[in-house]
UniProtKB/TrEMBL annotation:
Bilayer-crossing regions: 60-82, 137-155, 161-180, 248-270, 276-299
Domain ABC transporter: 332-564
Protein location: Cell membrane
Source species: Streptomyces ortus
Protein name from the UniProt record: ABC transporter ATP-binding protein/permease
Domain ABC transmembrane type-1 as annotated: residue spans: 25-305
Regions annotated as coiled coil: none
Lineage: Bacteria, Bacillati, Actinomycetota, Actinomycetes, Kitasatosporales
Length: 564
């Protein structure tokens, strides 16, 4: 049975359903406010008919007191209704944001494919906020309808004709407002798409700022962002024009309805069908209608923008996972035996490889893309197109990715650091009872800490930009070693360090990982020299395997890959 994924409308419905208690409470209180607002012109009409016209001071004081009570009630109901509505919007936004983050961070992956980090951040903030705001819009929409129905009821009691004008005119006005919101929905979706792309490009440029300055690429980067920003501006202006047109047209139609109510009321008063107080009430109610009808126009616009944002949120939530969880579990004690049988993926072609428990294996790929393909399969960011990867005799396809990664860790070459201290970064994935000291020594982080102002407690900025490239690499390698996994795969962990430091790291890596399976994907002679054996991947196939010194002596392709 194929899985079902949420649509934009499903996301909206779920957002309102989860907060139905607050939405219901807010709608009830806001409806009380609208009913109170509608009763104000009615009470003024009663005061005119029963107190002012008859010069009855007692009646005047009585009805003024009733009017004061109504004002207090509508003020309090508005205050607490707005509080409940805002709370429902914020909670819904928070819930959506958590759902999006859970989806992006899911071990099965997939949500990040084809999307820049900035675009995902925009969806989790701006789009989630718009969808959450639908709760407030629904609340105010219900309250506005309650006000309009109250107005229609009073007018029906005053004159059937006046009541029918409101009862028949309001649905027509709502239907026209809905039709007018369609262009806004389309343009709002385009606006959010372009804004998200602009945010993503900006984040991408900021992340590579140091590199851009180093190669003198500032002008090209500025030109790229200027083009993206102009596209975003154009989409925003189109959406703004659509919203202005929709608001203007709805306001004009609202004015026509109010003018019609006032015209009919005036004619009835002139004919003597209604009293002076009832005429004042009718005119007051006609003016009161401006508020609820404007709110309904705003609700239409909010729903249009909310639907567009909900579609973008649903698209991320509905992204198929890159890999699915299997039903098997790893043995209680993982030995660390890896076996690749007939693995084909990307550029890899029928790769067969046995890695014994506790072996330190080097892998040299003549094409860096093939190294990346191998890492994707070992990390189970993707399943092989053909063949199997097994850990202790269990296919990775049959394991939950989260459980698998508690035993097998793939440390990518471009792994980022996080905000915090040097020590916090090293111990991020370490067992609670583990000692990070050996890992820090093996990776050369102890030497790094000695050059920093506060040693291991030195603060690290976002993505580790406060450290040099070599320092970042050593901290990232120490983090992978401190995780203490049964199987560790590292990719080019020393490309940014000098030869002396690299030799020390190679010796430290072998020592700290002694007895546990380790795969080093690299072309570094210093690292390859400490491995038990090396596998040569050429043209996506395993073409030779032997100790490093033997491959250097007998294989020209190998010499070209590691000594060039």
């Amino acid at each position: 049975m194929s899985p079902t994924y949420p649509s934009g409308r499903d996301v909206l419905r779920e957002s309102v359903r989860e907060q139905r208690r607050d939405v219901g409470l807010g709608a009830l209180l806001a409806s009380g406010h609208q009913v109170g607002e509608a009763l104000v012109p009615v009470l003024i009409g009663v005061v005119i008919d029963r107190a002012v016209t008859g010069s009855d001071t007692g009646a005047l004081l009585l009805w003024l007191g009733v009017l004061a009570v109504v004002y207090v009630g509508l003020a309090l109901s508005f205050r607490f209704g707005a509080w409940a509505g805002d709370r429902s919007a914020v909670r819904s936004e928070h819930s959506l944001r958590l759902a999006l983050v859970r989806r992006v961070l899911h071990p099965g992956g997939g949500a990040e494919e084809g999307r820049l980090p900035g675009a995902l951040a925009n969806i989790a903030t701006e789009d989630a906020k718009r969808v959450g705001g639908v709760n407030t819009a629904v609340m105010y929409g219900i309250a506005s309808l309650a006000g309009i129905l109250t107005c229609a009821f009073v007018l029906l009691r005053t004159s059937v004709l006046l009541g029918l004008v409101v009862l028949l005119g309001t649905p027509v006005l709502l239907w026209l407002g809905h039709l007018l919101s369609k262009p806004l929905e389309t343009r709002s979706e385009a606006e959010q798409e372009r804004a998200a792309h602009a945010s993503a490009v900006a984040a991408d440029l900021v992340a590579g700022l140091r590199i851009l300055k180093g190669i003198g690429g500032e002008s090209a980067a500025i030109a790229r962002y200027r083009t993206t920003s102009r596209d975003s501006l154009a989409a925003t202006l189109k959406a703004a024009r659509a919203q202005a047109f929709q608001s203007g047209m709805v306001l004009s139609l609202t004015g026509c309805l109010i003018a019609l109510v006032a015209l009919v009321g005036g004619r009835l008063a002139a004919e003597g069908s209604i009293s002076l107080g009832q005429l004042v009430s009718a005119v007051g109610l006609a003016l009161f209608l401006v508020g609820p009808l404007e709110v309904l126009a705003w609700v239409n616009a909010e729903l249009a923008q909310g639907r567009a944002s909900a579609g973008r949120v649903a698209e991320v939530l509905a992204t198929p996972r890159g890999v699915t969880a299997g039903e098997l579990s790893l043995p209680a004690q993982v030995r660390g035996a890896l076996r690749l049988t007939g693995v084909s993926h990307g550029g890899l072609r029928e790769v067969d490889l046995d890695i014994a428990p506790g072996e330190l294996l080097g892998v040299v790929a003549t094409d860096p893309a093939h190294a990346s393909d191998l890492l994707r399969c070992l990390a189970r960011r993707a399943d092989p197109d053909a063949g199997t990867v097994e850990l202790d005799g269990v296919s990775l396809r049959d394991l939950d990715p989260a459980e698998m990664r508690t035993a097998l860790l793939v440390a990518e070459h471009d792994a980022d650091l996080f905000e915090g201290t040097v020590r916090d970064n090293v111990t991020a994935a370490a067992p609670a009872s583990g000692d990070p000291g050996p890992a820090m020594t093996a990776a050369g982080v102890v030497q790094v800490a000695q050059t920093l102002s506060e040693g291991e407690d030195t603060a690290v900025s976002e993505r580790g930009r406060s450290l040099s490239g070599g320092q970042r690499q050593r901290v990232a390698l120490a983090r992978a070693l401190a995780a203490d996994r049964a199987v560790l795969v590292v990719h080019d962990p020393t490309t940014a360090v000098d030869a002396v430091t690299e030799a020390g790291i190679a010796a430290g890596l072998r020592e700290v990982r002694r007895g546990r399976t380790t795969v080093v994907v690299t072309t570094s002679p210093a690292l390859l020299a400490v491995t038990d054996r090396v596998v040569l991947l050429d043209g996506g196939r395993v073409t030779d395997t032997a100790p490093h010194a033997d491959l250097i002596a007998r294989h020209e392709t190998y010499r070209a890959a590691v000594l060039a």
